[in-house]
Amino acid sequence: MREIVNTGIATACNAVCTGVLATGDCADLETELVTNQAYLGSIPTDPGGVTTDHSEYSIRVNNGIVTIASCSAEGGETISVAR
Hints:
Layout: E1 2-5, H1 13-16, E2 26-28, H2 30-36, E3 54-62, E4 65-70, E5 80-82
Parallel strand pairs: 1-2
Antiparallel strand pairs: 1-3, 3-4, 4-5
């Protein structure tokens, strides 16, 4: 699992997103999805206490299934989607 971050962030991903195991497990999707390809206007961020340049969302790919999840529970429930 990696935390989705903005360009230039390479550390502190496990501090922001507790399910992320290592500090460097950051996924810079901004370069590919926003800057180079312009698929998104910006990387979405969790509105509940976002740390600068950290989205507080995680991404995991397992056996071809991509799961995006919020690092913060809403009302005690973790929110995620998989395809």
